[in-house]
Amino acid sequence: MTEGSTIFSQIIDGTTPADIVYDGGDTLFFRDIAPKAPVHIVAITKKAISSLQDMTEEDTVLLGKLMHDITTVADAQGLKEGGYRVITNVGNDAGQEVKHLHFHILGGEPLGPLRCQ
Ligand code: 5GP
Q1: Would you give per-residue pLDDT tens digits along the chain (117 residues)?
Q2: Measured distance CA(24)–CA(65) in Å, rounded
């Protein structure tokens, strides 16, 4: 892996396999390798932004597109009626493992209250 690249870069370029559920052109959606809910999808921009805190004003349209794609994928995965949760971890205190901005889409059962552990 080159400096600054992550496992998600490898999923984007196809060198690491993933169960891809949707390719939005500038966005990509794939199943999390260690799911925390019956449906657990990782939503990313193909542009490598390290975290939400690293977005710039020029990324606002791209991230708006990502949010819209999330609703499309959630609907396609059958989550629209029951609802779902969207989370992004930013930095060490949040436990961000992969330094490529991503949103977790979680659903498929009642998730309970939002909690840290
Ligand atoms: P974070 O903790 O950074 O918010 O979330 C990173 C997520 O990426 C974790 O839920 C982890 O299971 C997932 N992940 C890490 N490596 C891979 C991989 O190679 N393939 C897939 N599909 N998911 C991965």
Answers
A1: 665 689 999 999 999 999 999 999 999 999 999 999 999 999 999 999 999 999 999 999 999 999 999 999 999 999 999 999 999 999 999 999 999 999 999 999 999 999 776
A2: 9
* Chain centre distance of CA 106: 10
Cα 54 to ligand 1 centroid, rounded to whole Å: 19
- Output the CA 102–ligand 1 centroid distance in Å: 9
Q: Answer yes or no: 40 catalytic.
A: no
40, 68, 100, 102: which one is catalytic? 102
**29 pairs with which residues across the strands?**
22, 43
Pocket of ligand 1 (CB under 6 A): 7, 16, 18, 30-34, 42, 89, 95-98
* Per-residue DSSP letter, 14: T
Choose among 33, 26, 114, 42: nearest CA to 77.
42
CA of 42 to the centre of ligand 1 (A): 8
